[in-house]
Amino acid sequence: MDLILQGFLEALRLLWTLDREVLAVVLLTLQVSGTATALSVLVGCTAGTALALSRFPGRTLVIASVNMGMGLPPVVVGLFVTIFIWRSGPLGFLGILYTPAAMVLAQTIIAVPIVTGISLAAIQQLPRELPQQILALGATRAQMVRTMVVEARLPLMAAVMAGFGGAVSEIGASIMVGGNIKGHTRVLTTATVMETGKGNFATAIALGLILLALAFGVSLALTRIQQRGRIG
Amino acid sequence: MSAPPILEARGVKVRRGGRDLLDIEAFSVPSGETTALLGPNGAGKSTLLRVLAGLEDPKEGGVRFHGEPLPRARDRTAARRRMAVVFQSPLLFEGTVYSNAASGLRFRGVERPEIRRRVAQALEALGIASLAGRSARTLSGGEASRVSLARALVLRPEVLFLDEPFSSLDAPTREGLIRDLAALLRGERITAVFVTHDPTEAVRLAHRMVILWGGAIVQSGPCEEVLRSPRDEAVARFLGIETLLEGTVVSARDQSFMVRVGEREVEVAGSAAPGERMLLCLRPEDILLTDLPLDPAHLSARNVFAGVVRSVQSLVHTHRITVDCGFVLSASLTRHSVEGLGLVPGRQVHALFKATAVHAIRM
What we know:
CATH class of the largest domain in chain B: Alpha Beta
Number of helices of chain B: 10
Number of strands of chain B: 20
CATH architecture of the largest domain in chain B: 3-Layer(aba) Sandwich
Helix content of chain B: 25-40%
Shape of chain B: globular
CATH superfamily of chain A: MetI-like
Number of helices of chain A: 11
Helix content of chain A: over 70%
Structural class of chain A: mainly alpha
Low-confidence stretches of chain A: none
Order of helices and strands of chain B: EEEHEEHEHHHEHEHEEHHEEEEEEEEHEE
CATH topology of chain A: MetI-like fold
CATH architecture of chain A: Orthogonal Bundle
Strand content of chain B: 35-45%
Order of helices and strands of chain A: HHHHHHHHHHH
CATH superfamily of the largest domain in chain B: P-loop containing nucleotide triphosphate hydrolases
Oligomer: heterodimer
Distance between the termini of chain A: 42 Å
Largest sheet of chain B: 6 strands, mixed
CATH topology of the largest domain in chain B: Rossmann fold
Number of domains of chain B: 2
Strand order of the largest sheet of chain B: 6-7-8-3-9-10
Radius of gyration of chain B: 24 Å
Mean pLDDT of chain B: 90
C-alpha cells in the first residue's frame, strides 16, 4: 500500500512541478497515439462501412480476418513492422526505424482492425431496410452512406474510443519499432516498463497513473461528443 | 376508360437463393389510382414493390416508368426522386419529426423556405403538426407511422409505394390512419401501390386489386370484382370466403343453373352445362337467416334451406354463425340480429341467399 501511495504522491509531484521529461513523454504519447487513432479511424470507419454495405464473394472471410485482427498481438505487429522498415527491408528506404513515425505506423496497424470491426458492427446493427429507405427518399449513394454513418454515430464513437485504447495501451510494438529512446521515442507505456525494470516503482506507478488519467480524459472527451444531443 | 399506366413491369423474374421469388408476365400501375398488391406471406408482394420502385433489379425483364425503361441502378437517382416508399417499419432517423419529414427534400437540395412550407403542409395533412419539434425516438407507433407517411408525401411523388405500413399498429390506430390515408389518396388523386395481406385494407384504400401467389399474379381487377369472383379455391379462402361447396350441375335454365350439393340443389346465376363440376363460393354477409316459415315462391332469393345452427362465434364487430342444412353455411350477423333471433346451437332456422350471390368456379 505504501508503494502505491508513494507512486500516487510521486505522480502528483511530477505533474505539479510540470516535470519536463514527463511532460515530453505525455505529449509524445498523445501525438503518436492520437495520430494513429486518426489514421485508423479514417481507414477503419471507411472499411467497416464499406464492408457492412457491400456484398462480394469472400466477404465472410474478410470479416473473419478483421475480427481476428481485433486481437492482433502487438509484438507480432512490432516484429513485422520492424522487418519491413529495417534498413534492408522493403520499406527500409523510408528510414523511420526508431522514430515516432514507426510507432504511429505500428499503432495504426493494431488499431485499424479494432475500428473496422466495431464500425462494421455499428453499421450492421442499423435496421436492414434502412439503406433502401434512404435511397427510396431520393438519396444518392453517397448521401445514403453519409446518412447511415450519422445514424450509427453513437457506436462509431465507441469504435474511435476502442481504437485509441488499443493504440495508447500497446507496448510491445512501440518498444520494438521505437526503441524507447529518451526524448525521442519514449512514451508512457515504454517509460513505465523501463522504470519498473529498473525497480523505480514509484516513478513507474506515477507514469501508469498518468497513462490511466490520459486514457480517461480522452475517453471522457469522446463520450461527451458521443452523448451530445442524445435523448433517451 | 382507364388512365395510361405510369409504371409497367414486363417479364420480370427475381431469383434468390436458387428460388424463384417473382415471375410477373405483365403488370401496370394506372395513373391516379391506388393498386393493392395482395397475397399471403412470401407471395412476392414486397419484392415486386422493390422492383417497381427501382430498389431491386430483376434477373430478367424490366420496368418502364412513363414508357421509358428505368436506368441502370447507378443512374437511377433521378427516377427514384419521382417516387417515394413507405416501409412496414417507420425507419425514422435520429432527430426531430420536422427533420425526418424534411430529409427527402434535403437530399434533393430544396431551399429551406420551401422545405419549411412543404413540411408544414404535410404534417398538417396527417394531423401531426403539433409534433414537429418532438424527437422521433419519443413517438408512439401510430405517430411514427404518420411521420413516415408525411416524409414520403412531402416529396409529392408521382408514385407512392406503401409496403404494409399499418401491420404493426393496434386496431384503433390503424383504423384512424387508414381513414386519413384513404382521404388523402383519393382527394389528391395520388398514384399509389399498396402492399397488404389484408383484403379489408385493400378494399378500403385501393381501386384495383392484384393477387400474388407464389411469386406470380393469379388475379387482378377492380376490388369488388375480384372479391365477388375469385378464380380458385385458394384465392377464395384468402379473400375470406368461408362457404365453399363442391357440386355437380344437374340442370340449366335460361339465366341460371342448378348445382347438386349433397342431397340439396343450389340455384346459381349464369350458365353451365349439366355434368360440370363446380365449386360454389358464398360470402358470409350474403347469407340471411330467419326463424319464419318461408315459401320460396314468394321470395326473390332463389335459395332457401331449412337448417340447424351448429355454432355461434363472437368476432369483434360481428358474429359468425354456422348452419347445417345438408351442407354447412357460414353467415355473418350483428350481435343485435343474433340476440333478436335467439340464435344458439341447435336452433332451427332458414338460410337464404340469392342465385346472384353465388360465385361458381369450374373445377
